[in-house]
Amino acid sequence: MWPSKMAPLVLFLVLGSNVIGEESVRKPNIVLIMADDLGIGDLGCYGNYTIRTPNIDRLASEGVKLTQHIAAAPLCTPSRAAFMTGRYAVRSGMAGEGRARVNLFLAGSGGLLPEETTFAKRLQQQGYRTGLVGKWHLGVNCEQRGDHCHHPNQHGFSFFYGLPFTLVNDCKANMGSAILANLQYAPRNMAVLLVVGLFTLVCVSACGLVDIKPWILVVLILLTFLVLAVWYVPFGLLARWNCIIMRDQEVVEQPMTLETLPHRMLTEAQRFIERNAHHPFLLVFSFAHVHMPHFDTPAFVGKSRHGCYGDNVEEMDWIVGELTNTVDSLGLANNTLIYFTSDHGGHIEVSHPLIGQGGGWNGIYRGGKAMGGWEGGIRVPGVFRWVGKLAAGRVVDEPTSLMDLYPTVKYLARDTQPDRHLDGHNLMPLLEGKRDRSEHEFLFHYCGTHLHAARWHPHDSDSIFKVHFVTPNFSPPGAVGCYETRICFCHGEHVTRHDPPLLYDLLRDPSESHPLGPDTEPRYAEILSQTAEAVQRHLLSLADKQPNQLTWEKILWRPWLQPCCGTFPFCGCKEDIRS
Question: Is 565 one of the catalytic residues?
């Protein structure tokens, strides 16, 4: 009798275990794809008719396109920190106060602090397999080489392959250097002058024209070597220090071979998807495209109508297609959310004698990368595809943010544990059409630690008002950009403070061409008052922000923090890519 009585219980336990297993499987896979420096106007689905982006356009046609998707900062490091944490970068200390607004050296000590929480950490705690392929740019070491306190592995990514830093001109031959270029000239020129002076003194002394004490020559020789070292060690070897590839915490290539990087990144991402196909996974694919310097992949060189930049956009689109096809070929389309965006707008000032225009097109939007609150630097693509879950071809015109990805993926992973104050909101109600209004009544637009602008989307209006308190000074006068310095700065003599602020209605004037006043906007006084109050509430909420991680002390090169394969300072290795 015992076996027969126990049979229902056994059957219940077996079925229950299957239900639990299926419940775990039903957690969606998440693939987040982020381009670097891509202009919103570079994509077909956002109005470009001269660059071919069929794969990204396909994601938009099969899913949801956001038209007012906003980066939390117009520059790499702070934007990515906000994306990862769901919070404005100033809260995590990842926003700079002065000229330095990003990590400039891989061997700096600043970065995303270990106590910060990323969406990868939250999903890892929910049983997800988590991977990051590509660019990080949020720091590596804190106090000594190998502590990896800022490394992706410490921030919830169980697998990392790619660039712990970013792509810079130093990574490609004959492209020069963009890192503290003005600062590099001083010690280099001084060293040249010392060498010339030393040679002159030796000649004069040898000819017997002047009697020079030997100790003077010794001092000059030592001084010359010192000045040369001050320039050459950190700057002359920048390709070796900054242009490296890591697999988890191991340096596998130093300096990197740029030509094969796109293929290697794609292969690593595809392998990650394949080996985790039967388990919920999070993959962040962080492009090195389309940041300068550009790739010269033979299959894409000269194929676009926009030179090297267009070639790289089309190569990037092809990689997006390959990733999408990998998901689909494994039968994962119905259980995988794919997202595509850029970390901020295109860098409109950048160009090079060898390639011409090197930056992107931000469509009708004014400004670009690094330009505070101007729309061209912060309005980015936002495309979501989830076959069978999100309606194909849906367009959302409400304000959304890159910071929204944190609460969105947390919701999808069924993470209900308490969290810190977040600045993002769960996007699923908007994406599914269950809600027609954004939860972002206000969004704040930073340039480093400086609050430059804010937008207000009143509950009783379709208008979206943008208030500019500060704007960068363009150079030369009359330009729309900072072409003399190649990038706009955020403070001091580099900006204009507006009192009263500049006001635009982005619904009617998305290019921010016609500022409003009390005679042209009936709600003028109310808009300024409501926005000022919202700014004060926001600033009060920053009381618990982390120490600034982008001070000069923290971002400059420290040899004892330099990731290295081999023996420092003779770092060097090449990855075996035959397999």
Answer: no
- Single out the catalytic residue among 76, 171, 490, 565: 76
**Cross-strand pairs, 64:** 384, 394
pLDDT at 23 over 60: no
**What is the CA 106 to chain-centroid distance, rounded?**
15
151 is an active site residue: no
Which of 45, 69, 137, 148 is an active site residue? Answer: 137
Distance CA 40, CA 69 (A): 10
Judge whether residue 405 has pLDDT over 50.
yes
- CA distances 429 to 175, 356, 433, 436, 437, Å, are 46, 44, 6, 8, 9
Closest CA to 472 of 99, 90, 102, 94: 99
Q: Is the preceding peptide bond at 407 cis, omega within 30 degrees of 0?
A: no
In this structure, what DSSP letter does residue 545 have? P
Tokens 């390959």 locate to 322
pTM of the model: 0.90
Q: Where are the alpha helices (DSSP H) in 330-455?
A: 375-378, 405-412, 428-431
Residue % of the chain over a pLDDT of 90: 76
Q: Closest Cα partner for 131 from 269, 265, 309?
A: 269
Please answer whether residues 85 and 93 qualify as being in contact, where contact means their C-beta atoms are separated by less than 8 angstroms: no
Euclidean distance between CA atoms 141 and 147, whole angstroms: 6
Rounded CA separation 340/194 (Å):
52
List, for residues 365-403, the tens digit of each pLDDT value.
Answer: 999 999 999 999 999 999 999 999 999 999 999 999 999
Question: Contact, 451 vs 444, CB < 8 A?
Answer: yes
Upstream peptide bond of 559 is cis (omega within 30 degrees of 0)? no
Per residue in 228-263, pLDDT tens? 665 566 677 888 999 999 999 999 999 999 999 999
The fraction of the chain above a pLDDT of 70, given in percent, is: 88
